[in-house]
């Protein structure tokens, strides 16, 4: 049986440190595949003193000898793709082994315009999207009027598809939002250039990924966003428009469930969220400020301040259940270094009843009060620890307690943004 695939995904609201771990695991893999989302993602990877910010391209790209794949489940803004490749090359990364699925959908200027108009129209009920056109592009995919990479790169298909779509979108923009219509010729010219750039990279990537798996190579499927932003399972409607959960790796890369052996959930030692929506363990005090400042919790894409709070086991256990997570990476443990006491939300309480399963209804969720257990902090710098044993006893106890509350082994503990600040506790591909 072909079984060397590993899915890596966020188990909270995104920004867990997925990029760092993808980069770390890429060393042992041949192929790294993004399976959903688009340039709403922002992954910071630190190598030595150099910082790389990636949005669309898989975080394996920093190794010149790995192949990175943008799968069919991703929505691709060609302008962002081009500028990201240019940015990487400026920094000395070749970014040559990149393949883009012919079946991936293309983000068009009207998607970005509609994302902006929709957010504006929602007023106080806004989602707080990254305004990159992600939602409207997925809407077109499901409405069966989207433009795929295969269409973009075909000169006989694209002009007609653009004409049909733009007519309908301009109608919407002018009549519904009283906005300015977009110009056909300008878009055609711009996107023809993008098509020429993308053509050599376009491929039936499912075949490529399948061949790598057949050769028993290590393939990492990299999820963007996080479980609680999942369109089906997240805090709807305050979610993104795709499915970050592990099973979607199969859909978004074009492989079967039997190709996935391990599912690695990435969790922060606390919780953050960017944008609107519920957040049961959110902190509004100086501890929240400390987490935000020490953790440099600013959105990579929008620069917004990330909301911060305690770790929430109701949500992490929910994410474990949804994705069949069988190993965990605990990130940013060092951000807790200065705290005297650390809290873990073990369950919620609603109308005097214990709640252990993450509620579906936002109204019910709003009535849930987090119940915490407290653990002593370690008040020691952990950023130089290279083994688990080198961590202070209280930090080890915190990690062990999370392991206990999840029943899932924590195979990675991260104590800083760099590659060498990563404590490994077992083979992740085993
Ligand atoms: P992603 O979207 O899941 O890839 O995460 P982001 O890159 O948006 O956010 C994680 C941030 O934390 C990045 O700036 C990383 O460089 C940084 N980071 C990752 N792991 C650690 C860690 O263990 N400690 C600290 N202090 N920073 C980390
Ligand atoms: P990474 O991969 C954190 C959030 C947005 C907004 C909601 C919908 O870096 O973890 P969208 O533009 O997707 O329609 O916005 O989802 N969001 C993220 N939050 N990390 C991300 O990605 C996110 N991608 C989208 O802030 O609340
Ligand atoms: Mg991020």
Key traits:
single chain; 430 residues; alpha/beta; Adenylosuccinate Synthetase, Chain A, domain 1; Adenylosuccinate Synthetase, subunit A, domain 2; Adenylosuccinate Synthetase, Chain A, domain 3; 10-stranded mixed sheet; 4-stranded mixed sheet; 20 strands; 32% helix; globular; binds guanosine-5'-diphosphate; binds 6-O-phosphoryl inosine monophosphate; binds magnesium ion
Which ions and ligands are bound to the chains? Answer: guanosine-5'-diphosphate, 6-O-phosphoryl inosine monophosphate, magnesium ion
Please give the order of strands in the largest beta sheet: 9-7-5-2-10-1-11-15-19-20
| Helix-strand category | alpha/beta
- What do we call the CATH topology of the largest domain? Adenylosuccinate Synthetase, Chain A, domain 1
Shape: globular
Report on the structure:
This protein is an alpha/beta fold and 430 residues long. The chain folds into three domains: 158 residues, 3-Layer(aba) Sandwich (Adenylosuccinate Synthetase, Chain A, domain 1), CATH 3.40.440; 94 residues, Orthogonal Bundle (Adenylosuccinate Synthetase, subunit A, domain 2), CATH 1.10.300; 157 residues, Adenylosuccinate Synthetase, subunit A, domain 3 (Adenylosuccinate Synthetase, Chain A, domain 3, Alpha-Beta Complex). 32% of the residues lie in helices and 21% in strands. It contains 13 helices and 20 strands. The strands form five sheets. The protein has a ten-stranded mixed beta sheet, sandwiched between helices. Strands 14, 16, 17 and 18 form a four-stranded mixed beta sheet that branches. The model has no long low-confidence stretch (mean pLDDT 96). The structure holds guanosine-5'-diphosphate, 6-O-phosphoryl inosine monophosphate (IMO) and magnesium ion. 6-O-phosphoryl inosine monophosphate (IMO) binds next to helix 4.
């Amino acid at each position: 049986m072909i079984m060397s695939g590993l899915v890596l995904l966020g188990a909270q609201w995104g920004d867990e440190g997925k990029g760092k771990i993808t980069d770390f695991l890429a060393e042992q893999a041949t192929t790294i595949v993004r399976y959903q989302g688009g340039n709403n993602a922002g992954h910071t990877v630190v190598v030595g003193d150099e910082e790389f910010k990636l949005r669309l391209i898989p975080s394996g790209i920093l190794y010149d000898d790995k192949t990175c794949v943008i799968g069919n489940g991703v929505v691709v803004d060609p302008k962002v793709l081009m500028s990201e490749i240019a940015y990487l090359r400026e920094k000395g990364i070749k970014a040559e082994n990149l393949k883009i699925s012919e079946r991936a959908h293309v983000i068009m200027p009207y998607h970005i315009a509609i994302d902006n108009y929709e957010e504006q129209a929602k007023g106080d009920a806004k989602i707080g999207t990254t305004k990159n056109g992600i939602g409207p592009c997925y809407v077109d995919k499901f409405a069966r009027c989207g433009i795929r990479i295969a269409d973009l790169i075909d000169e006989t298909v694209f002009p007609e598809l653009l004409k049909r779509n733009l007519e309908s979108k301009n109608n919407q923009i002018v009549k519904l939002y009283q906005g300015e219509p977009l110009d056909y010729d300008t878009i055609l010219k711009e996107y023809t250039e993008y098509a020429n750039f993308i053509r050599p990279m376009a491929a039936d990537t499912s075949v490529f990924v399948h061949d790598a798996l057949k050769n028993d190579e290590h393939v990492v499927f990299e999820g963007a966003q996080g479980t609680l932003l999942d369109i089906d399972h997240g805090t709807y409607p305050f979610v993104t428009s795709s499915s970050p959960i592990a099973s979607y790796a199969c859909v978004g890369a074009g492989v079967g469930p039997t190709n996935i052996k391990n599912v690695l959930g990435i969790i922060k030692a606390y919780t953050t969220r960017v944008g609107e929506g519920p957040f049961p363990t959110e902190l509004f005090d100086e501890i929240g400020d400390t987490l935000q400042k020490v953790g440099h919790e600013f959105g990579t894409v929008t620069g917004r301040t990330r909301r911060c709070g305690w770790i929430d086991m109701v949500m992490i256990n929910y994410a474990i259940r949804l994705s069949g997570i069988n190993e965990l990476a605990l990130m940013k443990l060092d951000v807790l270094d200065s705290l005297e006491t650390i809290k873990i939300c073990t369950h919620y309480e609603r109308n005097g009843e214990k709640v252990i399963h993450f509620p579906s209804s936002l109204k019910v969720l709003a009535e849930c009060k987090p119940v915490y257990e407290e653990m002593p902090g370690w008040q020691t710098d952990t950023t130089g620890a290279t083994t688990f044993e080198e961590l202070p006893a209280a930090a080890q106890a915190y990690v062990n307690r999370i392991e206990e509350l999840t029943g899932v082994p924590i195979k990675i503990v991260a104590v800083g943004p760099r590659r060498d600040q990563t404590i490994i506790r077992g083979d992740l591909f085993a």
